[in-house]
Every structure is written in C-alpha cells, then in structure tokens.
Amino acid sequence: MNLSDFGWCVGSSLDLAFAPLAQAGFAVGRVVSEQRGAYRVYTQWGEQDAEVTGHFRHQVKDALGFPAVGDWVVVDPQEDAAEAIAIHQVLPRQSQFVRQAAGTLTAGQVIAANVDTVFLMSGLDGDFNLRRIERYLVTAWDSGASPVLILNKADQCADLPAAIAQVETVAIAVPIHVISATQGDGLDQLTPYLSPGKTVVLIGSSGVGKSTLTNYLLGEQQAATQAVRLDDSRGRHTTTHRQLWPLPGGALLIDTPGLRELQLWSANTGLEETFGDIQALAADCKFRDCQHQGEPGCAVQAAIAAGELTTARLHSYQKLQREQQWIEQRQDTQTRLNTKRRWKQMSKTIRQHQKRKR
Ligand code: GDP
Ligand code: ZN
C-alpha cells in the first residue's frame, strides 16, 4: 500500500499545494478513523495514531475545522512513532458531508471529507420513505460530492416500476440504481463510481443494507470490519475502528455504521437543487414572495391541482426550509456569542496588563 492507494494524486492541485510543506520536511496522511479526537492516519509509513497539536486546537474556530475521516492532513514525518504523531493542518477539502452533531443545536459534524460520490441507500421494503430521501439529498448536494440513489431490497418489492416512478419524482437529476445486496443483483451498476482513487461514502438509515453492501464491496477484507463491529456492539471503543477502506478495485469506501437519523446542517444550495421543480414553478407565481398557501395566481398550487406535484412534497420542502432558517438563526447567535466572549477575554487581558504596569 502507498498513498496513491488512499487516493493521493501526484500532480493534482493538492499535491502541488503540498509541495512547499514537503520541502519543509512535513509528510501527508489520510485520516482513516476518528474517535473522540483520537485519529488513525495513513501515511507513507502505514497506519499510525495521530492527534492535533495544541497550536492547531487553538487556531481552529469550530468543529468543522477539525480533521474528519477522509481528510488529507499535514503531519510530522515519523517512521516508528511510539506515540501519536502530530497533525499540524488539514489540507483544503474538495467536499464535505456535514450533519448536525448529535445532541447539539448548533454544531456541525463532518461525517466524511473529500468524497466523490455519496451513495444514498434506501430500502424498497417497509422502510421506503420519500421524505427521508429528500432530506438525504439536500445534505448530499450540499456536500459538494455527487449523490447517487441506491434502492436496495429489490427482491422485497412487489411493484418495482411504481416504486421507481415515485422515487423519480423526488430524485431529480440523480442516478437511481435498483439492487439486491443479498441476492447480488444489480451490483455491477456501481462499478463506474468505484474507479481507482475515487472515494465513496455510504449513507442510509439503519437496516437498509449498508453492512451487506459494504461486505460485498470489501470482498476478502470483510472479516476485519465484522470484527470491528462486534467490538462496537459490546460498547467497547477501540482506536483501531477503521472507517475508510481501500476496496479491491482501487476505490475507497467510507463507512458510517454509527450514523442515526440525519439532521440537516446548513443547507447551502442543496435545498434548491433537491427541489428544483418547485423552484421552477414558483418563478411563475404572481407574487414574488408567494408562500404557495392560497395566494391568487400561485403556480405551485396550480401544479398540485393539476396533479403534477404532491402536497406532501411541497410540505416536505417547506419543512426543510423552516428547519434551515432555524439552524441559520442559531448559527448566527452562536457566532455573535463567540465574538462577545472573545472581546470580553481580550479586554480582560488588557486590564490585567495595565494593572501590572501600574
Ligand atoms: P445496515 O443496518 O444498513 O448495515 O443493514 P444490514 O446490511 O445489516 O441489513 C439489514 C437486514 O436487511 C439484514 O437482515 C440483511 O440480510 C437484510 N438485507 C440487506 N440487503 C437485502 C436485500 O437486498 N434483500 C433482502 N431481502 N434483505 C436484505
Ligand atoms: Zn405560489
């Protein structure tokens, strides 16, 4: 294994950006796991424990600035590190999949960085939920990576064409692939996304078949992931819990076994991209600020009346919009608070300094 097996591309803009740091004696590594600030990083010397420096911790403004699985980081070059090697910097991200951190109102958490494709997995059994697919799509579009919808458990679906038609109404301009992970049906459709050096993250609710697909993609390595999962279910946390896996074909898979319900973080343009149909309709509403709630000349309500749009989809859009506005407000407050606190701290330092002078 070498760095290119983990997706490092010689001659890429990142490689060029790193060159001066390499000359200064630093090495580069890719974060393969993170657990409460303890990192495992793959470097040219193999997999090593790593942690951010005190200076880094001091400089970084929020959780989003810390290394995440998939990140390229600048580290100290140490061949035989007995202790954790130092992470000095996170290299610019090409994409980041962010969710609202569990149990918080205002903190974002990077689930995966530098991802090319987001595999959004949904089950075609009882789990089938268009509103959840919309939510996942918003976050996926926001990440900067390309979403791909994987509908699993095709063998459990009585009317496939009807199910696919339903999904097509919410997954606009998104490739849809129907598979059965246990039967091994349709899996070759995923090959184009798995070319060497490409990174894929697998997202979906629990029970949709993520582990089954992961094990299939990992091939012979699957025993290793299962061992890790067993540890987890006993509540033990090991620092060797790998989350980024090189696949036999040369792609990299980021696994998110602990991811429960997905709360939106700041939706950038994901909301617009996911609901492009409603946005296009709204452009024809008589009033520019139409809320599509019974105003005269509302093109959105007209489309609903004509059977071209469902009320459920409009409500889903409005709900996600409210959620996004709420999150943005909280983020603003949080930013103001931090500023206030920093000013307070600064004036305190100045006062102490003046006292000492006197
Ligand atoms: P995860 O929680 O997303 O990792 O889901 P798992 O991979 O653990 O799968 C949950 C359950 O669904 C298991 O019992 C799997 O055997 C089953 N399952 C996964 N894929 C399929 C499929 O294509 N068809 C059927 N019938 N069952 C599946
Ligand atoms: Zn309207």
Question: What report would you give on this structure?
Answer:
The protein is of the alpha/beta class and about 350 residues long. It is about 35% helix and about 20% strand. The protein binds guanosine-5'-diphosphate and zinc ion. Zinc ion (ZN) binds next to α9.
Describe the secondary structure blueprint for this structure.
Layout: H1 13-23, E1 27-35, E2 38-43, E3 46-52, H2 54-59, E4 72-75, E5 85-90, E6 96-100, E7 108-113, E8 117-123, H3 130-143, E9 146-152, H4 160-170, E10 176-178, E11 199-203, H5 210-218, H6 222-233, E12 244-246, E13 252-254, H7 270-274, H8 276-282, H9 299-305, H10 311-357
Parallel strand pairs: 3-5, 8-9, 8-11, 9-10, 11-13
Antiparallel strand pairs: 1-2, 1-4, 2-3, 4-5, 6-7, 12-13
Short description:
It is built from ten helices and 13 strands.
| Order of secondary-structure elements | HEEEHEEEEEHEHEEHHEEHHHH
Q: Count the E strands.
A: 13
Instruction: Assign the structural class, choosing from mainly alpha, mainly beta, alpha/beta, alpha+beta, or little secondary structure.
Output: alpha/beta
Principal-axes geometry comes out as globular
Average pLDDT number: 84
Low-confidence regions: 229-240
Side by side, the strands of the main sheet go: 10-9-8-11-13-12
**Distinct ligands:** guanosine-5'-diphosphate, zinc ion
Report the helical percentage. 25-40%
Strand content: 15-25%
Key structural traits:
binds guanosine-5'-diphosphate, about 350 residues, binds zinc ion, about 20% strand, six-stranded mixed beta sheet, globular, alpha/beta
